[in-house]
Amino acid sequence: MADAHYDAIVIGTGAGGGTLAYKLASNGKKVLVLERGNFLPRKKTNWDSQQVLRKDFYRTTEQWYDKDNKVINPLTHYYVGGNTKFYGGALFRLREQDFEKVIHQGGISPEWPLKYRDFAPYYDEAEKLYEVHGQRGLDPTEPPIDRDYPFPAISHEPYIQQIHDALKGQGLHPFYLPLAIKLNEINRHLSTCIRCDTCDGFPCLINAKADADVNCIRPAMADANLTLITEAKVVRLQASASGREVTGVEAEIAGKSHIFTGDIVVVACGAINSAALLLKSANDQHPNGLANSSNLVGRNYMAHNFGVVMTLSTKLNPTVFQKTLAVNDFYWGDKDFTYPMGNVQMLGNVNKDRIAAHGPPLMPGFIAEAIANHSIAWLAMNEDLPDINNCVRVQGDRIIIDYTPNNQQAFNRLIQCWIEVLKSIEPFACHIPQKMTVKEVGHQCGTCRFGEDPKTSVLDINCRTHDIDNLYVVDGSFFPSSTAVNPSLTIIANALRVGEHLLERMIKY
Questions:
Q1: What SS3 string covers 46-111?
Q2: Beta strands per DSSP E along 231-313
Q3: DSSP code of 450?
Q4: CA distance 78 to 231
Q5: What is the dihedral of CA 22, 23, 29, 30, to 10 degrees?
Q6: pTM score, two decimals?
Q7: How many whole angstroms separate alpha carbon 495 and alpha carbon 27?
Q8: pLDDT in tens, 404-458
Q9: Is 410 helix (H, G, I), strand (E, B) or coil?
């Protein structure tokens, strides 16, 4: 395989890399995909909450470091499909205004070089490819769309429907989460998904999530055009003497170094690892890191401000699959706070092992179970603003996340507003907020932003590096801003957009 030459080499199989590899291979291009992990094994531990939540069975053991040189055990996974193997499948389009310059209480969210209308056809394609379920016309912040979701919305179970109705009674606009799962509620005997309680944050034992592995890599592997090598960790990109072309991709496989070559090289390792790879590939022509003449590789790192609000009630919560509801009424602020706040959506089930993992040491199991059976969890998500000082750095083999939270006043207000809403619909419950930390990297983005000016961006509008003609970055790295909804669908749509550009480029050359 190392002796072969490919039309394109794609590094990484997540939302960006997996989707792009599918797009190119299904259109007849000879594609090599290098993935540092393996296929996630299908076994009972997929659905074992003690193994997944308390023992971190599937998480990487790799250690990163924060700005104070303290160890970070990142919440990330290295498997075919990347973190989509563990996501909750919430696939949102960015709001139309998210592509414009937005003034926040904590700073400025910059204008994107492309607009919603440029992404709209690729959002359509992405929703179809990833089998997204939803219902138009319920979310007041929804961008203009002239077609329905490919599949109908996932229904609320009775307890969640009561919450939905109570929220509507307060004048809010709850809507169905757009979800990428393979559930057929009309003909359940034809459904891959069984609507279980181990979805959000778990790998699926029966491959019922529409993820980058199941929906892109495996179908593409059925075609001889795609070659996948697993357990191949790319450690360096080699450049030509001029520095204008990547001539080799160096990967470690079973302890040995291999060099692969292709006309196009696409980095899609996730915003943190993609930036780290470019920085580690420094050479004489690129002393500060590959494609880093702007000195922006790794900078403007964003990962959202996350908070979980857990409601502990006297009522028993019998819900099995509860991640079906979201609220965007506070996305652009409210009458008393004219700055954007963000998105609120339900998380997956709160079970006893999740409670034990986040509770005090030696909590008795019966107490954890009692709390879990009377709880429901909400995710409050606020925009993390780009800051040039928030960055990914490398120090030898170390990856350092130099990060300071921002936009905190709006974030705190979102959490408090949501607690007040919850009190209004269930006044005798206890509502407990908890902020997430720097180890939460599931929504990482921004480290190689795209734009038209090589001095202020790493990538051009087609996600090709300004400095190197055949090098592209196709993951969340390209985001100029993080917005306040899940990034996965935009990463997928962008990969399809870049794939179309590459197919056109390959015809010309």
A1: HHCHHHHHHCCCCCCCCCEEECCCCEECCCCCCECCHHHHCCCCECCCCCHHHHCCEEECCEEECC
A2: 232-239, 246-253, 256-267, 305-312
A3: B
A4: 9
A5: -20
A6: 0.97
A7: 14
A8: 999 999 999 999 999 999 999 998 899 999 999 999 999 999 999 999 999 999 9
A9: helix
Count CB neighbours of 361 within 10 A.
5
Written as one letter, the residue type at 463 is C
209 Cβ contact list (under 8 Å, min separation 6): 84, 85, 87, 89, 180, 181, 182, 193, 199
Q: Please return the burial class of 335, using the count of CB atoms within 10 Å of its CB with bins 0-12, 13-18 and 19+.
A: exposed
Instruction: Identify the sign of the CA torsion 88, 105, 390, 64.
Output: negative
> Which residue do the tokens 């993609």 mark?
274
Amino acid code (one letter) for 71: V
Is the per-residue pLDDT at 508 higher than 90?
no
* Tokens describing residue 112: 């994107």
Residue 485, CB half-sphere, CA atoms under 13 Å: how many?
A: 28
Q: Rounded distance, CA 149 to CA 129, Å?
A: 11
Euclidean distance between CA atoms 24 and 81, whole angstroms: 17
pLDDT score for 364: 80
pLDDT one-digit tens code per residue, 310-331: 999 999 999 999 999 999 999 9
Task: Kindly report, residue by residue over 132-184, the tens digit of the pLDDT.
Answer: 999 999 999 999 999 999 999 999 999 999 999 999 999 999 999 999 999 99
Instruction: Let me know: does 497 contact 259? Beta carbons within 8 Å.
Output: no
Reference 10, options 508, 498, 507, 400; nearest CA is 498
What are the pLDDT digits (tens) for 186-205?
Answer: 999 999 999 999 999 999 99
Q: Where are the alpha helices (DSSP H) in 359-427?
A: 365-373, 408-425
- Indicate whether 357 pLDDT > 80: no
Closest CA to 355 of 385, 375, 334: 375
Residue 186 and residue 150: Cα distance in Å, rounded?
Answer: 15
Q: Please answer whether residues 451 and 420 qualify as being in contact, where contact means their C-beta atoms are separated by less than 8 angstroms.
A: no
Considering only CA atoms, which of 9, 218, 119 is closest in space to residue 498?
119
Of 233, 266, 261, 236, the closest CA to residue 247 belongs to: 261
* CB-count exposure of residue 231 (10 Å: 0-12, 13-18, 19+): middle
Cα–Cα distance, 291 to 204 (Å, whole number)? 37
Question: The tokens of 125 are what?
Answer: 């394609």
Mention every residue, 6+ apart, whose C-beta is less than 8 A from residue 38: 79, 80, 230, 231
H or E stretch covering 504: helix 488-508
| Residues found in the chain | 509
Residue labelled with tokens 């949102």: 92
Cα R_g (the chain), whole angstroms: 22
Amino acid making up residue 447: T
Q: Is 320:157 a contact under the CB 8 Å cutoff?
A: yes
Residue with tokens 């006043």: 409
Q: Can you say how many angstroms the Cα of residue 18 is from the centroid of all Cα atoms in its chain?
A: 13
